[in-house]
Write a structure and sequence with these properties.
Blueprint lengths: L1 E7 L15 H16 L6 E4 L3 H14 L6 E2 L8 H6 L11 H17 L10 H19 L4 E6 L1 H12 L6 H12 L7 E7 L2 E9 L12
Parallel strand pairs: 1-4, 2-3, 2-4
Antiparallel strand pairs: 1-5, 5-6
Helix pairs in contact: 1-2, 5-6, 6-7
Amino acid sequence: MGVVLLVRHGQASFGADDYDVLSETGWEQGRRLGAWLGERKLVPTRVFSGGMRRHRETAEAVGTAAGWDQQPEIDLGWDEFDHLGVVAAYPDHPEGELDRREFQRVFELATERWTAGTYDADYPESWPGFVARVRRALDRACEAAGPGGTVVVVSSGGPIAVACAALVAPGADDPATCARLWSRFNTVVVNSSVTRVVVGSTGARLLTFNEHPHLEGETLTYR
């Protein structure tokens, strides 16, 4: 039986000139996860990473702390959706810089509009397009795990939530059903958490979601 570990990136740099870099907390989260996996003698057969900088930096932090020799292979299918673009397309988007609380409020309203599928022309990547992209990436990771392999994928909360929605409910083929499940998963994915997928003769199944025993106190973050 193969195993795929879906790892969410460490905390990014909210409010900085470049969001797509790990904060100091994000680097520490990656190192803690790597040390935790290393203590458990987990050695992947392959490592995949989305193409975003926060993905690559998290993979570096985890791999170095775990003592892995494998170099991450970039799979752009695991990239996060353009959350800033989705927020900017929201008609009632407030002007100016938003604090975390206000950004979260607007983000939830904006993604609800995006996942409704009514205004696809407003977005460079539609909700159905995003879901299809991530599902193809999940299929590739599961195929790479094969019988008996262990694959680590470093991605973001959005793609991981899509993967979980696809694995837990056959009805997730319906865009509205998938959107409801996605929202439930996406709002609670912890930075540097691990979600395990087992791959057997009957296909892929979700084994665990959002493991984060390596985190405590200020290192436990959601955004």
